[in-house]
TrEMBL record:
This is Malic enzyme. InterPro entries: Aminoacid_DH-like_N_sf, Malic_enzyme_CS, Malic_N_dom, Malic_N_dom_sf, Malic_NAD-bd, Malic_OxRdtase, NAD(P)-bd_dom_sf. Pfam families: malic, Malic_M. Belongs to the malic enzymes family. It comes from Pisum sativum.
Length: 625
């Protein structure tokens, strides 16, 4: 409790109100709060080796002698009791040594080796794992998340040691309502679910896609402070259409073609019903579903369940923040956004999500009426695998239809149905070139040369596809062809570029990781039953406003990942505030809706901060179940 009060001034109205919530000496608001010395202990129902083998409670050599006695651990550990700092020091020495020696494959041997070592720590001691991850997030986010998580998913059969999360398969139809009780935790706050059909830009990886759900939840813990005992990665295995996996004798998933149509929907429906029956307050993040289903499932569930689609909605928010940053970086006010000409390569779940959100943002700035909404669409040119999308396209995808360009108008611009990306860039001379195509190198030298004709004073390039090899271009390519007067962002991390003239080309990471943890945390703590458009918009706006004028003018439009916990707190607070304003907030635990309505913006931030889990060992006390 002391940690919490430390952050709240004694005269604060929040303090006064929260004090009313203290009953019987128990601090109820943050039951999830870490128990360190002097804090409420954690009750465990196991002892001895069972404790050492449970990553939720294991502290390894950091168990104190009194705890070793209480938990029947005396003699099961080396006698030296070490602090968590020394424990981490020892681990890091080993990690650094092994990562030099390891040889796991040709693409990036060290990355996969680091992942293995971190994964083993994750399996034996979660507190220590998250302590290492949070303290070194810049170094290890690229290992537990993109790009290495892509490699992990691709090699999952060989890497699989211990299961993590739950698997619901087409074979489990009719059983999900009961099997959901096989999960040991009575409270689950966040589920990230995938069906493995489009993992990053790597296509259908079937059951191996569970790696992305695990990686996203690692960020929920590290960035949003969701208690790791309350996260659940889920893989829904409805088969795979990946021929290699269908024929691979070592593949761990169902070796049948993917279910489709009503059969597919029935499986997802059953899963949703089961998890919301056991955990009515859980939030479900849909991740890496192929576009064909991403939009349909979002429409199907978003008004009845607490869920969102990260690729459609999270990516859209991050892109909006980046696009507004690019306007500011030109030295113009954000309100000039509707004048930007934007070419988007890729019309899948991510591309269409960005287009819809960008169009709505422009329309709001132009007067928020139907006329503004209609005129905003003329700022976008969308190119997919078949080239420029126009009304002349046969069998046009209904989600892309609103962005199909008029043929006559295109004729006047010297363009046509199916025009190539380079032709479009040459004719349109866009302010922004944004890629969500999953095609590495799509922004070829020719395309980048064409972008030299941009009418913008500072063109922006967003090569947002993941993992690294799928980036539409590298920052080196962009800066070397276009010079340093550009804005560059990529989905996976790249290093800044030394331009050799005393200037550094800044490479931003434009990834939905800057939003999804805050959207999830804000939704959880607001108690909103849905994730509304307004809440998503508030999240994007907070991210857009996060960067200072000075940073933006230097081309830094997204924060460094080392600030991810802070930006997540800010985003979560913005989401809560919006949920309160929309009258959606029902409260969380003892913070009821009425109390939430009374909190000032600073108090909302205190509330978020004090409900974020920190990786500190709790004092463990054994009780017979
Ligand atoms: N940076 C970030 O935060 C995020 C990045 N992504 C990345 O976006 C990419 C796409 O994801 P989805 O939209 O879900 O995939 P998708 O497979 O549904 O869509 C890909 C789109 O690219 C188009 N495309 C293919 N070849 C093309 C070409 N030569 N020229 C132009 N367009 C082409 C396809 O026609 C399709 O419209 C993935 O690599 C994913 O990792 C997705 C979400 C977030
Ligand atoms: C970042 C992400 O969600 C993706 O590439 O799919
Ligand atoms: Mg994704």
């Amino acid at each position: 409790m002391a940690i919490f009060w430390k952050h709240v001034k004694s005269s604060s109205p929040l303090l006064q109100r929260l004090k009313r919530h203290i009953t019987g000496g128990h601090y109820l608001l943050s039951r999830s709060f870490t128990t360190t010395e002097g804090h409420r202990p954690t009750i465990v129902h196991k002892r001895s080796l069972d404790i050492l083998h449970d990553p939720w409670f294991n502290k390894g050599t950091a168990f104190s002698m009194t705890e070793r006695d209480r938990l029947d651990l005396r003699g099961l550990l080396p006698p030296n009791v070490v602090s968590s700092e020394v424990q981490i020091e020892r681990f890091m020495v080993d990690l650094k040594r092994l990562e030099v020696q390891a040889r796991d494959g040709p693409s990036d041997p060290n990355a996969l080796a680091k992942w293995r070592i971190l994964n083993r720590l994750h399996d034996r001691n979660e507190t220590m794992y998250y302590k290492v991850l949070i303290a070194n997030i810049e170094e290890y986010a690229p290992i537990v998340y993109t790009p290495t998580v892509g490699l992990v998913c691709q090699n999952y059969s060989g890497l699989f040691r211990r299961p993590r999360g739950m698997y619901f398969s087409a074979e489990d139809r009719g059983e999900m309502m009961s099997m959901v009780y096989n999960w040991p935790a009575d409270q689950v706050d966040m589920i990230v679910v995938t069906d493995g059909s489009r993992i990053l830009g790597l296509g259908d990886l079937g059951v191996q896609g569970i790696g992305i759900a695990i990686g996203k939840l690692d960020l929920y813990v590290a960035a949003a402070g969701i208690n790791p005992q309350r996260v659940l990665p889920v893989m829904i295995d409805v088969g795979t259409n990946n021929t290699k996996l269908l024929e691979d004798p070592l593949y761990l998933g169902l070796q049948q073609h993917r279910l489709d149509g009503d059969e597919y929907l029935a499986v997802i429906d059953e899963f949703m019903e089961a998890v919301f029956t056991r955990w009515p307050n859980v939030i479900v993040q849909f991740e890496d579903f192929q576009s064909k289903w991403a939009f349909k499932l979002l429409q199907r569930y978003r008004t009845t369940y607490r869920m969102f689609n990260d690729d459609v909605q999270g990516t859209a928010g991050v892109a909006i923040a980046g696009l507004l940053g690019a306007v500011r970086a030109q030295g113009r006010p954000m309100i000039d956004f509707p004048k930007q000409k934007i070419v988007v390569a890729g019309a899948g779940s991510a591309g269409i999500g960005v287009l819809n959100a960008a169009r709505k943002t422009m329309a709001r700035m132009l007067g928020n009426n139907e006329f503004a909404f209609q005129s905003a669409k003329s700022q976008f040119w969308v190119v997919d695998a078949k080239g420029l999308i126009t009304e002349g396209r046969e069998d046009i995808d209904p989600d892309a239809l609103p962005f199909a360009r008029n043929l006559k108008e295109m004729d006047r611009q010297g363009l046509r149905e199916g025009a190539s990306l380079v032709e479009v860039v040459k004719q349109v001379k866009p302010d922004v070139l944004l890629g969500l195509s999953a095609v590495g190198g799509l922004f070829s030298n020719e395309v980048l040369e064409a972008l030299k004709g941009s009418t913008s004073t500072r063109p922006a390039i967003f090569a947002m596809s993941n993992p690294t090899k799928n980036a539409e271009c590298t920052p080196e390519e962009a800066f070397s062809i276009l010079g340093d007067n550009i804005i560059f962002a990529s989905g996976s991390p790249f290093s800044n570029v030394d331009l050799g003239n005393g200037h550094i080309g800044h490479c931003n990471q434009g990834n939905n990781m800057y939003l999804f943890p805050g959207i999830g945390l804000g939704t959880l703590l607001s108690g909103s039953r849905i994730v509304s458009d307004g809440m998503l918009q508030a999240a994007a706006e907070r991210l857009a406003a996060y960067m200072s004028e000075e940073e933006v003018l230097k081309g830094v439009i997204f924060p460094s990942i080392s600030r991810i916990r802070d930006i997540t707190l800010e985003v979560a607070a913005a989401v809560i505030k919006e949920a309160v304003e929309e009258d959606l907030a029902e409260g969380y635990h003892e913070m009821d809706a009425r109390e939430l309505h009374r909190l000032s913006p600073d108090e909302i931030k205190d509330y978020v901060k004090n409900n974020m889990w920190n990786p500190e060992y709790p004092t463990l006390v054994y009780r017979h179940e």
